[in-house]
Amino acid sequence: MDESTNRSDMASGMPVSDRLDSWKEIAAYLRRNERTARRWEKTEGLPVYRHAHAKRDSVYAYKKQLDAWRNSRRVGLEREQSAATVGNSDAWRKRFRWIGAIAGIMAIAALATWHISRTGVQDPIKAVPLTSYPGYERYSSFSPDGSQVAFSWNGETLDNYDIYVKLIGSSVPIRRTTHPADDLSPAWSPDGRSIAFLRLFPGDKTKADVILIPVSGGPENRVAVISRMDSAPSSLILFGHDLAWSPDSKFLVVPDRDSREGPVGLFLVSIQTGAKRKLLYPPAKSGSYLAPSLSQWTLPGFC
């Protein structure tokens, strides 16, 4: 122990054994870390001394003075400790909220996955036949409400194709045409009022009438004549639907051609006037355009 330290001890009247000679000892005595002890010296007047000839961090303090300072600052220190405890509690509370939220999301996702898989197992999609009559049923077309289906059938005697309508779930179809020529490719109008179909010419099956019949019954209405075949009449049955309605139920798209030797293209036909307008026409010797299908659209200026 040097002489200046002994003189300081003698001046303070404190025994040497009561002295703490470093920040580490001071912090340990106060039961805080060194950073807190240093902060209290600057902001709270913690009684800490420095040797005159030593570095700034060479400090000492007396236990009795620290005790007196602590007693005078007890209320403030307890409040600070309480605030720190509350802050820690809030931090943990927020952390638990996030953990709870993530756990909840994972639980919902797991429940949804389980429900979907369980539903898929309990309610598999089933294929249900609409018809099972002798002969051939072709060109099915659903009514807009999905309650009925129109189709072409060559009948129990397999003699010629006519148009039939069947209520979904019933067993007996209703015959809508009885002409001796083949009636093919029915197409239910979007407004649900009419069914359009093709009737092949008995003497020239490369041509066909475009005919409308009311769904509720009534006389037939021939709208137009088309020419869409190149050779065998049977090939007319092998392609897809030849008629497509516009969404407003005012027009039909049909296969046709400008001349007997020309390729087959697609034409727009007005069901009111029978007027035709060319839509798509393939280059010569490049094949045919068949089986049209329309998206939602409008065609202003056509009459």
Walk me through the topology.
Elements: H1 3-12, E1 19-20, H2 23-30, H3 34-43, E2 49-50, E3 59-62, H4 63-72, H5 74-122, E4 137-142, E5 148-153, E6 162-167, E7 174-175, E8 183-188, E9 194-200, E10 207-214, E11 221-227, H6 235-238, E12 244-245, E13 251-256, E14 265-270, E15 276-280
Antiparallel strand pairs: 1-3, 2-3, 4-5, 5-6, 6-7, 8-9, 9-10, 10-11, 12-13, 13-14, 14-15
Brief write-up:
By secondary structure, the protein is an alpha+beta fold. Helix content is 30%, strand content 25%.
Explain this structure to me?
With 303 residues, the protein is α+β, with helices and mostly antiparallel strands. The protein is 30% helix and 25% strand. It has two domains: 3-72, Arc Repressor Mutant, subunit A; 137-280, Neuraminidase, CATH 2.120.10.30. α2 (23-30) packs across α3. The relative contact order is 0.06. Residues 1-8 and 231-238 have low confidence and may be disordered.
